[in-house]
Amino acid sequence: MGDTNDGLKPKKIVFVTVGTTCFDALVRAMDTEVVKEELLRRGYTHLLIQMGRGSYVPSKSGGGNASLAVDYFTFSSSIADHLRSASLVISHAGSGSIFETLRLCKPLVVVVNEDLMDNHQSELAEELAERKHLYCARPQTLNQIIADMNLDSLLPYHPGDATPVAKLINRFLGFPDD
Questions:
Q1: What is the pLDDT of residue 10?
Q2: Domains delineated in the chain
Q3: Keywords for this entry (predicted)?
Q4: What is the structure's pLDDT at 66?
């Protein structure tokens, strides 16, 4: 058969990143049959998980007959390449991962790690979700967000206008709005 695609669906990769952290709850959520089935239903073909310092190892098998190709790794020097080749990015709430993904104009679901104390990251993700730049989820709501998301409704993020972000950072630091 060779490597020809024979008119089959093009490769659509979901890239999951936890950055340098341990976020087993996100990796575990991605590894559930219900999430894999939902991704398949939405036309995704590959799931690539960057699991960071986590100890939970996802299974490489997808669900059902037409299965999702699943792979994972801990760290990579080429995260930007993975982001570029992704059709959908599911990320922890680290600001670096968020802004890099938005800069590449990739649809993004940010999953907030509720185990982190003093979670400013969730405020940033929720603010950007309110502005329709991304979707925000918790590990336990991820399947519902994937099922309900309309990627066409997301608005591109224009880093040229730093005013809203600067105001947001000032608010986090306790400075009054101008």
A1: 85
A2: 13-173 (3.40.50.2000)
A3: Transferase
A4: 65
* The amino acid at 79: I
Task: Give pLDDT < 70 ranges for the chain.
Answer: 1-9, 61-66, 117-119, 160-166, 176-178
Alpha-carbon torsion (162, 164, 165, 170), positive or negative: positive
pLDDT at 91: 97
The string of DSSP letters for the chain reads -TT--TTPPPP-EEEEE-TTS--HHHHHHHTSHHHHHHHHHTT--EEEEE-TT--PPPPS--SSSSPPEEEEES--TTHHHHHHH-SEEEE-S-HHHHHHHHHTT--EEEE--TTSSS-HHHHHHHHHHHTTSSEEE-GGGHHHHHHH--GGGPPPP-TT--HHHHHHHHHHTTPPP-
